[in-house]
Structures are given as C-alpha cells and as structure tokens.
Amino acid sequence: MPTLIESEEHQALREAVSALGKRYGRDYLTRVIAEGRYPTELWQEAAKLGYLGVNLPEEYGGGGGGIAELSIVLEELGASGAPLLMLVVSPAICGTVISRFGTEDQKRAWLPGLADGTKLMAFGITEPDAGSNSHRITTTARRDGEDWLLTGRKVFISGVDHADAVLIVGRTEDARTGRLKPCLFIVPRDAEGFSRNPIDMELSAAEKQWELVLDDVRLPADALVGDGDAGLLQLFAGLNPERIMTAAFAIGMGRYAVGKALEYARERTVWKTPIGAHQAIAHPLAQAHIDLELARLMMQKAALLYDAGDDIGAGEAANMAKYAAGEACVRAVDQAVHTLGGNGLTREFGLASLIVGARVARIAPVSREMILNYISHQTLGLPKSY
Questions:
Q1: Residue 123 burial by CB count (10 A; 0-12/13-18/19+): exposed, middle or buried?
Q2: pLDDT 10s digits, 158-201
Q3: Which residues pair with 217 in a beta bridge?
Q4: What is the model's pTM?
Q5: pLDDT tens digits, residue range 359-373?
Q6: Taking a C-beta distance cutoff of 8 angstroms, is the pair 74, 252 a contact?
Q7: Rg (Cα) of the chain, in Å, rounded?
Q8: Per-position DSSP letters for 270-313, written without gaps between them
Q9: Cα distance between residue 124 and residue 191, in whole Å
Q10: Residue by residue, what is the 3-state secondary structure of 153-171?
C-alpha cells in the first residue's frame, strides 16, 4: 500500500493547481454565475495544463495518473474558490468508465477530447422515482434490429447544456433470466427524441441542473459501453470515483470558507483585540480545520485503493470519505459565516452562497443516510430494514 503522506509529485501538483485557481478565484466564478455562462476560460486553461485528463491513459492524451491526482485538482480549485463541478462528471465518471470498459473505438472517439477539454460528457443516473437506486431505474433499452431504443426520464443531471453527450444508465432485459440489468449508453446531445428541461434551483452554480426525457431515442449498437453483462460493475466503476471527487469538492469548499474566516478573524478587532484571539472564535475554526484534514485522509485512502484496483475496498472508503467530507464542509461553512457575523451574509464576502452549496455534499450523489445504510450493512454486517 502506498503511503498516505503525499509524494513530491502530488505536492507539486497541488501547488501548481492552487496557483491556477488563485488566478481566477471566487470573484471570477461569481461573475460567471451572474452572467449565466460556463467557466470556459478556467476549463480551457486547466485542460491546456493537462489537469482535466490527469487521470486518463496516456495513450489517449491523458496524464496517466488516477483519481488521486484528479481529486487534488478539484480540491485545490475549490480551495481557491473556483471549483469545476464537471470534473466530477466528465473525466472522473465518464472518462473512467470508458477507459476501463469502452471499446477501442469508444476510447479513441471520446478520451482525447475529454482530456484536452474539447469534449464534455454528462452522466445520467438519477430518476424521479428511483433517485440513484440502480435497482429501481425505469429507463429501459430494448433492441430494434441492430439498434437500441431508449425510453425514460432523468432528473438533476448536471451540465447537459454544455455536454456533447450524456452517459445514460438504463436497464435491458437479460436474455437468460428475463430480469432487467443495468447498462450504460452514450447518448449524443442532439439525438432525436432526446430533450431537456432546466430545473429551477435556489442553488447558484455555473453548472445548471436538467431533467432529461428520452422518447424512443434510437442509438446504434456501438452506443452500448463495454459488455452488456457487466453493467453493474461498470456502473460502480464510475460511482466510486464520483464519491471520491465529491469529497474533494466538499473539502475544497470547506477550506476556502475557513480561509476567508481566518483572514477576517485576524483583522477584525473588537476592544483592541483581534476576534481570532478569543477561544470562542478560534476553537471552532480549529475544529473545522481538523475535520477537513481527517476527511482528506479518508479521501486519499479511497483514491489510493481505487487506483490500485481494489474496487471493494475503494467502495467502502469512498462512501466514508464522501460522508466525512460532506459533514466537515457543512460545519466549516457554517462556522465561517458565523465568524463574520452579519458580514458573512453579504455579497462582499461571498460566503452566504456556500451555505446552500455545502448542502450539496450531504445530499448528492448519495445522501448521508444511504451511506450510513451502506456501512451498516456492508461493513458492520447488520441486517437490513428494507
């Protein structure tokens, strides 16, 4: 097992990505959101520097690294105030699934573009009545000659308006058992019968959320990713990196919030003393920092296990990392806002919007309660109530 103390290469990557993030920062992302557009400039520069595809195979234009490296990229961009949510989706989920299970033609068609930022892929699993429960997904794919026909609905799908295609999780009938099994399909954005509707969110983000409708969307045989019999394995090959990257997103956000609170606590003076000198202010910020550092350790463990090919061990650690990071992020943001008092709710200091943003890490891509269910059953061996 590799050490959990970061290598010099990883430390250098952190410093380089941090420098990029600080050149853009929270003011840039706030402006992009206000203008209703995508952070294209940051995305393209991150691509040019090789950060978007750092986890993808070198033979397809990637950096040859793993989720450990990609999580560093997202965490440091988040800590600078300018996270790129689609890093969770395009290179981490879709890029991983295609590089591990895709055909040679699929790899050549998609991986170079995902690595250099010229292509973007969204991921569609969540449904109105199933959430992320792959056993209750109702989007179905049926054969029509050599083609596939997909029908169903998806909700809370990020970045579809900027994506060239969506990796859709559907279900097909197993010819041997007659049961439905999960399968993944690459659905081009302009496919006939494939429509999208924006979801009106209170959350302010550059990446919009969409409802997707698939009405007998006709796809060629090669739209199916990899082996149709390995759908569940392929699905979890994408979901574990998703959880690890969500942890990175949360840790970066929490670090940014604590950093802003520390600046304020050092400078804001009451009765001739900086408020940060008072333990009522200092101790909660110290605790927030500790919680974020502990969450990062579990995230690093999960990434190392995943990159080493231990899917089972990575599944447990990725869920724990996502849970720990979500909780740490919510507490860090709350404490940061509280440290600033009324200023924490002003646009000038830019922390109030993180109150809503931090909740995402508790809710998506899987709720903390479902993670507790997973650990209860899979790790502790307790019986199910459902």
A1: buried
A2: 999 999 999 999 998 766 676 778 899 999 999 999 999 999 99
A3: 150
A4: 0.95
A5: 999 999 999 999 999
A6: yes
A7: 21
A8: ETTEEGGGSHHHHHHHHHHHHHHHHHHHHHHHHHHHHHTT-HHH
A9: 15
A10: EEEEEECHHHCCEEEEEEE
